[in-house]
Amino acid sequence: MRVVLQRVKQASVSIDGQIHGQIKKGFVLLVGVSDADGDAEVDYLTHKISKLRVFEDEQGKLNLDIHAVNGAILSISQFTLYADTKKGNRPSFTGAGEPQHADKVYEQLNARLRQEGLDVQTGVFGAYMLVDISNDGPVTIIFDTDHK
Fold first, then answer.
1. Are the C-beta atoms of 26 and 71 separated by less than 8 Å?
2. pLDDT (tens digit, 0 to 9) for every residue of the chain, 148 residues total?
3. How far apart are CA 41 and CA 105, in angstroms?
4. DSSP secondary-structure letter at 97?
């Protein structure tokens, strides 16, 4: 799995001009799934994301996790994280998971993050979405479970 995590002041996702999910302080997750991904990858990412200390403490150090700041998550499925641009100018997405499998794993990740006590808002898997992000810092972290 590949996840691009951005610390945000606020974020929202709109579908067909209607806001589908929105958060204040927290993380936006752009989530890509391959066919090889499953429970082990979901477990790993749930732990990393829910415990990641990238919010400032009283001394201005990145020392607090999302729970400590009462943050929320906006999770967006993003098969384009598996783009292969080695040949030509048109990316190939053959590394992305088959939609049915990818949707299942994406939903498992969201459910597990909710089990950690986090408010998780989402887009709609496979939909055309407009994502509005107010990146804070900026702080952007890339997770790739093939390189853990």
1. yes
2. 999 999 999 999 999 999 999 999 999 999 999 999 999 999 999 999 999 999 999 999 999 999 999 999 999 999 999 999 999 999 999 999 999 999 999 999 999 999 999 999 999 998 999 999 999 999 999 999 999 8
3. 9
4. P
**Per-residue H/E/C for 67-132:** CCCCCEEEEEECHHHHCECCCCCCCECCCCCCHHHHHHHHHHHHHHHHHCCCEEEECCCCCCCEEE
Q: Which long-range contacts (CB under 8 A, 24 or more apart) does 57-61 make?
A: none
The amino acid at residue 61 is K
Cis omega (within 30 of 0) for bond into 91: no
85 is catalytic: no
Catalytically annotated residue among 46, 80, 94, 122: 80
- What the block records as the tokens of 80 is 């384009």
Please, what's the largest Cα pairwise distance for the chain?
A: 49
- How are beta strands 119-122 and 26-32 bridged, if at all? unpaired
Helix (H, G, I), strand (E, B) or coil at 107: helix
Whole-model pTM? Answer: 0.95
Q: Rounded CA gap, 32 and 38, in Å? A: 12
